[in-house]
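Job type: complex structure
Entries:
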Amino acid sequence: METTRLIMVAVGGQGNLLASKVLGEAALISGVPVRMSEIHGMAQRGGVVESAIVFGDATSSIISDSEADILLGFEPAETLRALNRCSKDTKVITNTATLPPFTVSIGKGVYPEVENIKELLKEKCASLVAIDAMKLAKEAGSPMSVNIVLLGALVQSGSLGFTKENVIEAIKRRTKKAFLDKNLKAFELGYEAAQNYGN
Amino acid sequence: MHKLLNDSPGEEIMLLGNEAIARGAIEAGVAFATTYPGTPSSEISLNLFQMSQESDLYFEYSTNEKVALEVAAAAANSGLRTFCMMKHVGLNVAADPLMTLAYVGVTGGMVILTADDPFMFSSQNEQDNRYYAKFGNLPMLEPSSVPEAKEMMKYAFDLSEELNQPVLLRTTTRINHSNAFVTFGDMKSRQTKGKFIREPLRCVTVPAVARQLHAKLLEKMNKAKGISETSRFNPVEGSGKFGIIANGVSFYYAMDAVKDLGIEEDTKILRLGFSNPMPEKLIKDFVKDCEKVIVIEEGEPFMEEAVKAFAQEAGITIPISGKSEALFSRLYEYDPAMVREKIAAYFGIEYTPKEKLSSDNVPEIPMRPPNLCSGCSHRATFYEVKQAAKDMDIICPTDIGCYTLGFLPPLNMGDFVICMGSSVSTSCGFGQATDQKVVSFIGDSTFFHSGITGLVNAVFNNHNFTLVILENDITAMTGHQPHPGVDMERFGLDGFGRVNIEDLVRTLGVEHVSIVKPFKVRKSIETIREALEYKGVSVIISREPCALYAKSMKLLKPRAFKVSDRCVNHRDCINSIACPSFYLEDGKVKIDADTCVGCAVCAQICPENAITPLKK
């Protein structure tokens, strides 16, 4: 089976570890081999959280610089920061809703223009889907569903080799029952937004 | 029921490496487990702690790693299957019992797990603990994948019982914190009560006994070497003139590289999963038929030096290389592309790495360092100490925990930290060696771990400093584990004692002890000032539960604050305490009501009194 390498970057608290769990479950349901690696030592303290997910036959569980096939960014500046993980062949999916780091508030840095981030990603990588996942999550009923909105967009890209139905089943198995309806709606909204992106 | 207690052999489940390790211990019938939490090992103990509440497994959070190992040593010498786990630097704390426990050995299977942290994702150094196995004469196993970590755990208990020796299981972060599918195996039943049989000539290590034991230990290690020679964890794959010897996660990077480079036909790989004692004959036979050998291992040249020595003994003169300027570094962790590139270079295979994207036009991205949480009481304490010591030339030794982050601007409270507990003892040294005022910080869990002896030293030798004990009622950094000062009834658990830090400090003979509630800013500054002016050892206990923990246990009802129109935008709040709930909107300070927990520290330092509670 061909290997697909996915990097997910997020800010602590955005739920990317749950997103990895859902993807892992979806891979299990779909019979796709998968290995994942997470760095979450300081996750609760507002730092950057990164997951590497390797689908297919490769046996490593981490991804080297320039070797991500897909980059899924939960926050636009973090997506841009992860550009070193990409090549000209990388498909990029990013949230456009910003979470400016604290350094910006205390005047120790300037947050880049989101439009500029989008242009750079589009210019340097193979493709870009940029959606306001926060807006869609709120529309689905919970700002906590940003991760699931982004999973919808990721699955729409078709790069992972598993079906929408299997991911929905994984969401049912891996997320809290109380949030299920909101999460399923969030997933659909993300999927649709990616489908309509650029149209 | 806890998912790792499911008696469902054949079930396939996605597990974190640390969960797989915990499951491996359960399948092996572990009866007794001890630890002091430390990343990247923490989730192993967290899962065992949870499982101990639903089963007859005995688990304890011990006060430190030395204590954990000694408690475990007794259980293992009463015949129980015993597991003691810690992070790599924890083994330094436990090194004293470790070295002599190796002489004494065990009667029940005992596994000691050390979780190493190449690249120091969450550690103060990246020491390579494989040397402990060699140093102490302990058989060592090193898994290369998550499923194998579970298998090795099970095997390690059998091996330990075969040799009557504790076995060291050494992981790295990328095993502990990777996820993969794992298949559950059968669960061995637990034997939870043992019997200690008096054997003074084995267990009382006076010099005459120890001399005998050392000789026996070498015999045991000789036996272990024989087992290592044919171990299934030391497999040779493929055949050909290019030889690769690898361990741990590097093994899979090498496997992928060989495939990517299309050199499967020419390459054979020896993986050392049972890496102490080294399988001498296996390695000599492997190297003998190669044209060139590359050794791939993160950290120090542990295998490389041994392989070179074996080759020399066998009169083999082929090139063997690993750590060198052209090849692998002793620094940080490796990755698949790096391994691919070095293998290609060493064997002369053509290879073009993936082209890097140019960083042209990419603006500077503001840093996102980890920060103390919104409403973290440490922030308040640091601010108050800073205010109280405003006109003093101070040194702030600090310690290991969330509060180490206090060294960052704008708080800048943290000048020296080397290991758990060092804040107290280094304060003794700084106070004596300089004329500067010393004020140091230690968390409650770290104080129990190894701060107490330093404080006893301070009282006895009449040192001069102020120690701030940050009593937040939990071991916060590693994920909210209990410690001896915690009220365990809060966890819904009975049958635990509780040590009161204030009573303990007074009993140790500290004459100046004060208590502050850090969210009362002015009063705290006054109290701290008084303690700083005291000549001798003074202790301030700053009492406020960890905000994250309080929130998760619903001990706290967040009541957010807002910045009102009275704000004249001089930004004392942001500039002096830097709470992450602040943000700027159109150049004005705002408070994020979703994350503000209502500690009201900023409200107390705003000169305009512009920060007020949000109306409900």
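Summary: Residues 4-97+113-196 of chain A form a domain with the Pyruvate-ferredoxin Oxidoreductase; domain 3 fold (CATH 3.40.920.10). The helical segments of chain A are 16-30, 76-81, 102-105, 114-124, 133-140, 146-156, 164-174, 180-196.
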